[in-house]
Amino acid sequence: MQLKSKKQNAAKRAENRTARWLAAPGLILIGIFTIIPITLALTLGFTNAQLLAPTNPDFTGLNNFKTLLGVSAVTLNAEKNADGSCVKDETGAIAYEPLRPLTRDDSPRKDLRGKSEFKRVFANEEDCSIKVIVAGDPVFWRSLTNTFFFALIVVPVQAGLALILALLVNQRLKGRNFFRTVYFIPTLSSMVVISMLWRFMYQQDGLFNKSIANFFPGYVPIDWLGNPKTAMPAIIVLSIWQAVGYHMIIWLGGLQTIPAELYEAVRMDGANKWDEFRHITIPGLRHTFVFILITITIAALGLFVQINVLTQGGPLDSTSTLVFQSFTRGYQRQEIAYGSAISFVFFILVLVIALIQRSMTKKLDT
Amino acid sequence: MKINIGRIVSYFAAIIFTVIFAFPLVFMVMSSLKPDFNLLQDVGTVRSFLPVGPISFDNYVGVYDRIPLLRFIFNSLLVSTITVVLGLFVNSMLGFALARMEFRGKNIVFAVIISTLILPFEVLAIPLLYLMVKAPWVSFDGGFQITQGIFNNYQVQILPFIANAVSVFLFMQYFKSLPKELDEAALVDGASWFMIYRKIAMPLAGPAIGTVSVLTFLPMWNSYIWPVMTVQDEQFRPIMIGLQYFYVNFSTAWGQIMAYLTILTIPVVILFLSMQRFFVNSIATTGIKG
Fold first, then answer.
1. Contact: A22, B193; criterion CB under 8 Å
2. Each residue of A115-125: pLDDT tens digit?
3. Which of A211, A246, A301 sits opposite B283 (nearest CB)?
């Protein structure tokens, strides 16, 4: 008896030892190239690290985050005319007092020092004033809102379109493998390639403008990527076009896990297509749904390559994004600490989404 | 005869989508065969999707003359292949240990793998860049010496991407699906755990190996942000960076750009068509189990 347990212990120890050797290379690499960078992402933001500076970085507390996240509001006033209307400048706009003296380093309003204009909101024509939001880094806030806008459109549209495609090619159509392949190919090609291709299609004498002009002779070509109003929508369209095939395959995988018997059963009960979809397909896809939502959201919040290839954040910061800013500051301007502070914000966003996913999955399982 | 309206609508929709997804790529390939003048003239007409006019491979020759094309292709293939091969070893070993063995600290390791699964590379890129610039490296230059900084070489493009939480996870899932009796029988016969991994588990892991290879190769071939930041030396640059050479005199060389885009796309399309099963598997499995 004792002999046997000794033997078992030896076997256990051998298993333990071998397992560690097998796990070691992967763990060491993950430690160096994932865990350390995560730690750096969470800590470098509190320093003044520069990419190529020979000196060691100093701890600077919350300085980077104060600049990054600092926001204040200020009210600017304009003079009134005798008739009660506001004084206008030569362009016809209301002549508010300038913001600049309030944001200088000697400003009477301490909280405004070093900040600049982010957005003008709430113009009050009656007492000739306007509320202005000023921020330590307005470009960051613009990037954040651009990123959210992108995600807000891309997530539902891409997930929905991918589901439509999946349902379409899940039917017994002739040539459905051909259709699947065609819808999937843009995904294979890198976003860099797709962005370059679409750059040509979007330009003033490009595919879109010339095609539209063929149908509407009076059409004035739009500089899709050069106009602050159309640049982000143009990037949204090409992003969805490139990635939707990938999520179609994920939906298809989900569709195929639904047992065929379930459909037969409800068909026997006289259900129509819509009932089938509502009572079998949708509940059967709920896990796939959560997964797709989460992956598209995280990918959308990481929007970068398209911006880097197509617009460099312009025109007028209208396409700048979170990751693009962290790249610009951290790499191009070599302000690693500031870039890391932006990565920190991105990390928190991803964390929040991961937590949402967990709670959603838990809810579905109970 | 009963005409099924639903099916007609389906075919109609499928064909419309085919046009939407295929035409930009058809346009790309066709444009790569035309001189810039004809290319720009054809834009906006049906001709831009057809191989008409003075068709030639001149643009491809032009690409070859403009950039060190073969060097870039070699670099990309080298970096991608080494990463795939090393990744297969490292990730399968870790996946095997997690799936079939008991060891102290297993729960922590498992938690780390799971929590890094969805972490996008973009979060880590800037801190990782800093780490690479500061990291020590042993180099051989007549004698061994320790230098600071890992950049402008192949290592910086390979090392961070060998171990991959998604690959570990896929291997783990696959090894879990193999019957437990295999190990027990082998242990009774006196096999070591390492033998079980090498002689039993890995030979059975064909589908997982295929899936992980595809899943590693594709992003490596397509990698862009990381080499932009870390590889300035032409000698080590991968193929995607080659596009930057066409930014100069941008509007003049569209035919060549289209040719280069076609060159970049063809290998992955061939890989896809020849390994379609693994592609679909890779996506479907990450989708369902993730």
1. yes
2. 788 888 877 77
3. A246
pLDDT values of chain B reduced to their tens digit, one per residue, 290 residues: 556 788 888 899 999 999 999 999 999 999 999 888 888 888 878 888 888 888 889 889 988 988 899 999 999 999 999 999 999 999 999 999 999 888 888 899 988 888 888 888 888 888 999 899 888 777 777 777 777 788 888 989 999 999 999 899 989 988 888 888 888 888 888 888 888 888 888 888 888 898 888 888 988 998 988 998 899 888 999 999 888 887 765 556 888 889 999 999 988 888 888 887 777 766 666 554 43
Distance from CA of A190 to the nearest CA of B (A): 5
Question: CA–CA separation, B228 vs B239, rounded Å?
Answer: 11
For residue A107 the two structure tokens come to 């400003």
Return the half-sphere exposure (C-beta side, CA atoms, 13 A cut-off) of residue B134. 20
Distance CA B192, CA B46 (A): 66
Cβ contacts of residue A258 below 8 Å, gap of 6+?
A280, A281, A284, A285
For chain A, the residue count is 366
| Strand A116-124 versus strand A71-77 pairing type | unpaired
Whose structure tokens read 């289209």?
B258
- Measured CA to CA, the distance from residue A142 to residue A151 in angstroms comes to 14
Mean pLDDT across the stretch A14-29? 90
8 Å CB contact of A257 and B288: yes
Task: Walk across the sheet containing A71-77 and list its strands.
Answer: A71-77, A129-135, A116-124
Single-letter residue type at A127:
D
Per-residue confidence (pLDDT) for residue A65, from 0 to 100: 87
Please count the other Cβ atoms lying within 10 Å of the Cβ belonging to residue A53.
11
Q: What is the DSSP letter of B205?
A: -
- Helix B206-221 and helix B254-274, axial crossing angle in degrees, nearest 10: 170
pTM of the model: 0.88
Angstrom distance (rounded) from CA A323 to CA A301:
8
* Token digits of residue A304: 């970068």
From residue A126, alpha-carbon distances to A73, A93, A96, A131, A252 in Å are: 20, 15, 13, 13, 58
ipTM: 0.87
Say if the Cβ atoms of A40 and B265 lie within 8 Å. no
Interface size, chain A vs chain B, as Cβ–Cβ contacts under 8 Å: 282
- Tell me the residue type at A347: F
Task: Point out the residue among B22, B187, B225 whose CB comes nearest to the CB of A182.
Answer: B22
How far the first Cα of chain B sits from its last, in Å, is 47
Among all residues of chain B, which has the CA nearest to that of A183? Answer: B21
Q: Which of A23, A37, A213 sits opposite B44 (nearest CB)?
A: A213
User: Does any CB of chain B come closer than 8 Å to the CB of residue A18?
Assistant: yes
- For residue B193, the chain A residues in CB contact (below 8 A) are 14-15, 18-19, 22
Give the mutation candidate from B21, B162, B199, B266 for the A interface (greatest A CB count, under 10 A).
Answer: B21
DSSP letter at B55? -
Q: CB neighbours of A229 closer than 8 A, spacing ≥ 6?
A: A318
Tokens, residue A157: 């549209």
Backbone angles phi, psi at A284, to 5 degrees: -70, -20
Give the integer Cα–Cα distance in Å for A180 and A169.
7
B-chain CB neighbours of A169 within 8 Å are 14
